[in-house]
Amino acid sequence: MATRGSLGGLAGPTSDVAAVLDASGRDLVLIETVGVGQDEVDIVRLAEITVVILVPGMGDDVQTIKAGIMEIADVFVINKSDREGAERVEREIRAMQSLSTRSDNWTPPIVKTVASEGQGIAELAKTIASYDEFLRSHDLNLQKKIQNWQERLVEMLRESLLERVLRQEMGDGRVSRYAAEIAERKRDPYSLVEEIVNKLGH
pLDDT of 119-165, one tens digit each? Predict the structure, then answer.
């Protein structure tokens, strides 16, 4: 699904689709984001295991995207690892891993693959299973699900409340009128927002 303007790397309905697939009894649901970047971390709130795939020579310098990937990756994959630069990408990942420790004390492994030739795929599957076993053996699986649902519930509430506010308090051209009053300095935005939020309780 296209992200449709979403900055988190996933389309808004992706979590709903994943929930339907999970409820239908699928043992494994794979979700692919549009790419890796500092803002594309919504996948962490949805997936139990996050695999970050990097490709040497494609602008995937870890230094430029470290704020995003170092926090979300449970497993690193360097695909097209037969290309020049694969070792440099691996060195950068390991150097940055040495600077910080995760709260669960897991160090994301680095798996090299050449997907077009099937190289490293079995090792990748084994590595993902290893992390799943790590979560289960340390009773972290349920904790991770609870944390993910906490964040998703807040997001769902935010969307639902915004939709309600727009429907009940901001219809009939009121958004334009409020904006004009603020622009003309007849009202301040902070008290206006507080006033609108307070009306929700009545």
Answer: 999 999 999 999 999 999 998 988 888 888 888 888 889 888 888 88
Cβ neighbour number for residue 30 with a 10 Å cutoff:
9
Among residues 93, 57, 100, 59, which one has the least CA distance to residue 76? 93
**pTM for this prediction:** 0.74
DSSP 175: H
Buried b (16+ CB within 10 A) or exposed e, 116-142: eeeebeeebeebbeebeeebeeeebee
Q: What angle do CA 17, 19, 22 make, to 5 degrees?
A: 110
In the three-class reduction of DSSP (H, G, I as helix; E, B as strand; rest coil), residue 112 is classed as strand
Please report the sign of the dihedral spanned by the C-alpha atoms of residue 12, residue 13, residue 18, residue 23.
positive
Residue 159's identity, in one-letter code, is E
Neighbours of 69 (CB within 10 A): 23
* Residue 125 to residue 11: CA distance in whole angstroms: 26
